[in-house]
Structure formats: C-alpha cells, structure tokens
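Figure 6 in text form: structure in, sequence out.
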C-alpha cells in the first residue's frame, strides 16, 4: 500500500508563476543563468544560485545558508504564499509535439522507500546522497519533485480528467513552447478518494530522481533520531513527488560517445566487435536501431548496424537484457577499456531527444572517435530490473516529463 499524502505547498502567486518557474539548474549554461537572473528578479534561479547577487561562486554550507535566506526573502516579499490546508495538485504539461502528461503532485513516504514499496532501478552515489541531504537540512525545502510512476488506474485517471475540465490555477507557456497547468485539489472528499486509490497500489517506481529520494530518506532518518517526540506524521517523513501513470511516461535512450579506440585501429576494433555482433556497413545512410539488441555505430564518416549474436551472449536476468548493459559488457569494458561508467572521462552521453545526427556531428568534428546509438528501454524492462533488486548502468534512460522548479515547494 502506497502512502501518498496531500500537503500545504508553498507556491508563487498566479501573476508571477511564469517568471518564477525554471528548468533544472544543471540544464542552463553559466551564461544562460546569468542572463536570466540579470533581467528577471523573480526567477527561482536567484534562490538556488545566491552567489549571483555578489558576483561570486559560493559552495558548501555557506551557499546552503544563502539559499535559505533568498527563499525566506521570496516569502517575505509575498512572491511565495502557502496554501492553508493540505492539497493534492494536478500538474499537466503539453509539449511542443502536443504530447500531454498529467499527474498528481503529492508527498510520498520515506518509509515506503525503505520498505521497497517505492522501488528503484538506478544506483546512487553515497557522497551525492549525503551532500544533498545536508543541503535539504539547511534550506528546509524541496522545489523539484521526484518523478514516480504507477500502474494505470482508471479511477485516478477519471478524477484527473474531471478536475482538469475546470479553470487551472496556473497556465503558462515557456520559451520551449511547452504549456504548463496546475490545479489545486482542496475538496476533502476528492482528497480522500485519491488517498484511497493510491492505498490500493502495491508498488510505485522511481522514474527520475533517485538521488533526491535517497537524500530525503537520509534526512528523515537524521531528523527522526533527533526528535524525541517523533510521531511519524512530521513533514520530514515524506518527500515531494510527481506521480504519473505508466502510460504517460516517455522513455528515451542515452547514446554513447567515446573519445578514442583504446589504442586500436579501426580495422582491429571492427574485428573485435565481430565476436559479439553481426556488422553491416551502412555507409552515409543514417541508421537508428529499430528494436532491442540492435545498435548503431558511427565511425570514420560511416554508419554501421550491429546486431547482437544471441547465441554468444547469455541472458541471465533482466539487467543482462538491457541494451546499455549489453554494450558495456561486450564493447565498452572489454574492448575500449572503460571500467567505471561514472568516472571515466573518455565516455560522454547524448540523450535520445537529440537526433542520432547529433552524435554524427560530434564525431565528424573530431570531439569523439566513435558513437553508439541505442534502442530505448521499456517501462517493463525498468520495472523488472527494479523488481529483481538490480540497478541499471548510469545514463540508461532519459525520461519525460520534466517539470519546472519552483512551482510547488515542499517544506520539511
């Protein structure tokens, strides 16, 4: 049973939400961030990059304290206000391709994370978990929900459909030509219905935000240990999440770019690949994989198709069937000498929203020597890996939707 609770969100006022909302911090170049902060005093970037005010890069505990100060200033200036009662929030995104994503922003349980009701499919790094936990502990809020997915529920879908017929609390379009909507659910009867429907769901899955959820759970443990009157319903026992049905999730691949051939000539490299793959030279014809276990490769001005020799490769569990893992075990590690995908500087990644031609361009520009295109993983693969207690290699999936930061804020 998943415990999915309403909460009293801190939110921008209706007239300023489009000015406050930002993409994730890492998606901006330094010049983009500076430009947006120079001309928009309401941008959430002012909160998460407080050093801009002093034209100085600030890190660590000093930055965390300044983040807290900027956040309090936004509240004092009534750019942010808090809802009076706990609510659920329906968030809908319609992107430029007219794809629509609808889900519910709510508070998910840290205990559910620990009990594996909320399942994971990616490894997390301990130092990143601890760093973000310390950040959360100092600033006292989270502004970017963890993306969770659940099996399609006709009852929840019907509630969302009915609510979204009403006028939205927020409606704004970004420069990316995505339109964002938010509805606030404060009716206690509907809140009870939603809570009840989620309680019937045995398992939800983290689609995006493994480090955020892990850090929130570490924080919950810390605060629980230091609270002699701990009851279990305190805000720190939950973390903000965006729950969408599995049918609304979009999973794209991450393509791989490698800087060198580990001392091999092109011919030597192809001969070693032949052990694992049937290889076909496609010349200048752009080739993109059309099904699992097929890969594209671009090297020396030409595309190649690589078809896995299934009689050579052993499928022992759900992880071994994942194309990102297959490429690592057959090519990246044994042939190209890339042992640690998280730390090796010879490998980079390009998400599948960038066309395979983008990979070709980077190789043609001599930034990389070879590029590999993958077929995207499926939601069923992701779930099987999580159910078996396994974890994917880094950058195995690029998942949409991507929410804007600063639209709903959860205080611990």
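Output sequence:
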């Amino acid at each position: 049973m998943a415990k999915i609770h309403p909460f009293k969100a801190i939110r921008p006022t209706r007239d300023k939400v489009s000015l406050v909302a930002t993409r994730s911090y890492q998606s901006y170049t330094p010049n983009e961030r500076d430009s947006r902060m120079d001309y928009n005093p309401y941008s959430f970037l002012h909160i998460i990059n407080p050093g801009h005010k002093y034209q100085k890069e600030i890190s660590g505990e000093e930055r965390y304290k300044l983040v807290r100060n900027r956040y309090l200033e936004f509240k004092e200036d009534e750019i942010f206000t808090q809802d009076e009662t706990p609510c659920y929030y329906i968030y809908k995104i319609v992107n430029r391709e007219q794809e629509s994503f609808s889900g519910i922003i709510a508070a998910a349980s840290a205990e559910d994370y620990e009990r594996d009701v909320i399942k994971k499919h990616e490894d997390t790094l301990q130092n990143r978990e601890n760093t973000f936990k310390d950040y959360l502990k100092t600033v006292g809020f989270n502004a970017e929900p963890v993306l969770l997915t659940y099996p399609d529920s006709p009852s929840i879908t019907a509630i969302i459909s009915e609510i979204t017929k009403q006028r939205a609390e927020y409606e704004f379009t970004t420069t990316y030509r995505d339109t964002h909507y938010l509805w606030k659910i404060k009716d206690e009867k509907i809140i009870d219905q939603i809570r009840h429907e989620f309680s019937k769901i045995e398992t939800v899955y983290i689609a995006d935000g493994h480090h955020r959820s892990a850090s929130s759970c570490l924080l919950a443990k810390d605060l629980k240990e230091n609270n002699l009157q701990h009851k279990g319903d305190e805000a720190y026992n939950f973390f903000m999440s965006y729950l969408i049905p599995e049918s609304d999730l979009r999973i794209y691949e991450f393509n791989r770019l490698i800087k060198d051939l580990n001392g091999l000539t092109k011919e030597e490299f192809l001969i070693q690949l032949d052990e694992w793959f049937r290889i076909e030279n496609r010349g200048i014809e752009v080739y993109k994989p059309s099904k699992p276990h097929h890969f594209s490769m671009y090297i020396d001005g030409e595309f190649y198709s690589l078809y896995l020799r299934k009689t050579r490769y052993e499928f022992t569990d759900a992880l071994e069937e994942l194309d990102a893992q297959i490429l690592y075990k057959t090519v990246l590690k044994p042939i190209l000498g890339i042992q640690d995908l998280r730390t090796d500087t010879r490998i980079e990644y390009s998400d599948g929203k960038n066309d395979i031609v983008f990979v070709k361009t980077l190789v043609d520009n001599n930034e990389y020597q070879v590029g590999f295109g993958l077929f995207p993983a499926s939601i069923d693969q992701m779930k099987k890996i999580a159910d078996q207690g396994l974890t994917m290699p880094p950058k195995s999936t690029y998942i949409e939707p991507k929410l804007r930061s600063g639209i709903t804020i959860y205080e611990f």
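Caption detail: The longest helix spans residues 60-76.
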